[in-house]
Amino acid sequence: MKATIKPLTQRPAWKALAAHHKLIKKLPLRKLFAEDAKRGQRFTAEAAGMFLDFSKNCITDQTLKLLLQLAGESGLRGKMDAMFSGAKINVTENRAVLHVALRAPKGETILVDGKNVVPEVHAVLDKMTEFSNRVRSGEWKGHTGKRIKNVINIGIGGSDLGPVMAYEALKHYSERSLTFRFISNVDGTDFVEVTRDLDPTETLFIISSKTFTTLETMTNAQSARDWLLAGLGGEVKAVAKHFAAVSTNAEKVSAFGIDTVNMFGFWDWVGGRYSMDSAIGLSTMLAVGPDNFRALLAGFHEMDEHFRTAPFEKNLPVLMGLLSVWNNDFLGAQTVAVLPYEQYLKRFPAYLQQLTMESNGKHVTLDGKKVNYQTGPVYWGEPGTNGQHSFYQLIHQGTRLIPCDFIAFGHALTPLGRHHDILLANVFAQAEALAFGKTAAEVKAEGTPDRLVPHRVFEGNRPSNVILADRLTPKVLGQLVALYEHSVFTQGAIWNIDSFDQWGVELGKVLAQRIVPELESETASKLKHDSSTNNLIRRYRTLKGAK
Ligand code: F6P
After folding, report:
1. What own/partner pairs with CB < 8 Å and gap ≥ 24 does 412-421 have?
2. Which residues on adjacent β-strands are paired with residue 221?
3. Handedness of CA 481, 483, 484, 490 (dihedral sign)
4. Does any ligand 1 atom lie closer than 6 A to the CB of residue 460?
5. What was the pLDDT predicted at 547?
6. DSSP code of 244?
7. H-helix or E-strand containing 306?
8. Ligand 1 center to residue 159 CA distance, Å?
9. Relative to the CA of 217, which ligand 1 atom is closest?
């Protein structure tokens, strides 16, 4: 019989956490650290070479105990098992959620509707490997016989953010004789600027779209086709040598004019924002080579196994997810800042925005009831140290609570003089300053004039996590992404929401499709929107000189 799970706010652990929160407010981090010399060692966890220091969160042992109890009362274990076993946990789309199968080693069995999907995953990986080797070695030639020098991924959302992030993150390992670029925005500037200095005879487009119907991607793909044909004297045959597709929709790929021989498939059980390690990672494999791509997958898998098997109190994604729930629902934090102190991770916050917010930006529970608690926080961030000279002021002294995830590495991939020590000193200093601040007495003791004292006080008690790993390798990137994927899962499981659908993006898409002809028509149509939208449409038509 299926165990019934109480509504979240009625679970004993939730009620206890709500009461406990009042106590915590009176326990600043200064005091918690002063009273427990080992806190900085105790509130840490380590797995697969990733070290998580969560001691600078506003928690005690009791908080942790209650959060772990909440995980139990929320059926987290059962929900994890359901995901890993291929159950259709994306209930609104009736789909399995099996990004973990994308990195399952050959020989494992994961069933969807009674069929083992692992062999198919590896067949696609092998096809990607063969294609990547041919392009990277120069064996694959463009229509005029020249080798490919430029690879352009066209996609948006999960079909862009993962590939861009992974390319930037792993640039150190990339084939530098190849140029990689990405087009996502339907704003024509994106296309024009990306292609302006490229030679079509040396350019390969990868059209990445799970559905192969996304307006932005299809518009850019059509412009790519036109651009290529214009540069190759209109020879339609050229398309076969300059276009590959990554999609679940062979019919649409073929209708677009791409030979399905050059199509790399994936499956409806891979969500767009969970797809960078599927064939959507084709540009990544082309950039870093098949061996590095497989190392990336191995990193993902290692974190999957840790998440699946480690006890919750030692489980990095579970701990991060529970702490996020604590900060969000009990301490009232509305956002999380993700602050990588690694220049190669400069697109990681943008990638995480889709992963976290498209997943957990939900207002109803799995059974459609409106939630009476906060769900997914806003994720944002920039690489350190740049952020320190821009928005950190607000994190240190503003009125809002902004938990921070600092991400740092023991080694720089490109060591240069003292840079890395200075970089790391800044990470540790920021986490320290946020936690402990500076009291009025300390400020005064420095000889600060009285009138300036309040301005120079740091309240402290700002929570942060520090994630530390040895160096940013493909494997470590896989671990890091999987860490966040499963943290998102944990949060969604507690909130009892569907972290794997994205109905919230539909309305705008439908309305845009309705407005396009109203902007393009020769004569003004009879507009039936609200007065503001009607007015804006008319103004735009006037600006563009339409009737
Ligand atoms: O923004 C909505 C969305 O469906 C994302 O979930 C997805 O990653 C993106 O659009 C792109 O979709 P597709 O890969 O089908 O073009």
Report:
1. 412/471, 413/172, 413/344, 413/471, 413/472, 414/172
2. none
3. positive
4. no
5. 82
6. E
7. helix 290-309
8. 7
9. 16
Angstrom distances, CA of residue 304 to CA of 104, 316, 478, 492, 500: 9, 11, 10, 17, 17
Cα of first residue to Cα of last residue in the chain, in angstroms, is 66
Q: Which two tokens stand for residue 16?
A: 């206890």
| Tens digit of each residue's pLDDT (9 = 90 or more) over 186-230 | 999 999 999 999 999 999 999 999 999 999 999 999 999 999 999
pLDDT of residue 4: 76
Q: Return the pLDDT at 135.
A: 98
Q: Is 209 in the pocket of ligand 1 (CB under 6 A)?
A: yes
Task: Report d(CA 181, CA 193) in Å as an integer.
Answer: 10
Q: Which of 2, 26, 370, 389 is catalytic?
A: 389
CA 362, CA 500: separation in Å to the nearest integer? 10
pLDDT recorded at residue 3: 60
The CA distance from 304 to 103, in Å, is 9
The set of residues, in sequence order, having a beta carbon less than 8 Å from that of 431 and lying 6+ positions away, is 56, 404, 406, 464, 466
Q: Which of 168, 302, 358, 382 is catalytic?
A: 358
Cβ of 244 closer than 6 Å to ligand 1, yes or no, is no
CA gyration radius for the chain? 25
Residue 153 is classified by DSSP as: E
Question: Strands 50-53, 44-47: parallel, antiparallel or unpaired by DSSP?
Answer: antiparallel
pLDDT level of residue 5 (50, 70, 90 thresholds)? confident
Annotation marks residue 389 as catalytic: yes
Q: What angle do CA 36, 37, 38 make, to 5 degrees?
A: 90
Query: Ligand 1, residues 282, 505, 509: which to mutate, most atoms within 8 A of Cβ?
Result: 505
**Ligand 1 binding pocket includes 163 (Cβ within 6 Å):** no
214 CA → ligand 1 middle, Å: 7
User: Ligand 1: which residue has its CA nearest to atom 2?
Assistant: 505
Confirm whether 358 is a catalytic residue: yes
Give the Å distance between the CA of 142 and the centre of ligand 1.
29
SS3 407: strand
Q: Is the separation of the CB atoms in 396 and 433 below 8 Å?
A: yes
In this predicted structure, the answer to whether residue 309 has a pLDDT above a threshold of 50 is yes
Which amino acid is located at 407 in the chain?
I
Q: Which two tokens stand for residue 121?
A: 């995953």
SS3 16: helix
- Using the mean position of ligand 1's atoms as its centre, give its distance from the Cα of residue 527 in Å: 29
**Contact predicate 231/270, CB 8 Å:** no
Q: Which residues contact 358 (CB under 8 A, 6 or more apart)?
A: 157, 273, 502, 504, 505
User: Alpha-carbon distance 327 to 434, whole Å?
Assistant: 15
Ligand 1 site, residue 248, Cβ cutoff 6 A: no
Rounded to whole angstroms, the Cα distance separating 163 from 170 reads: 10
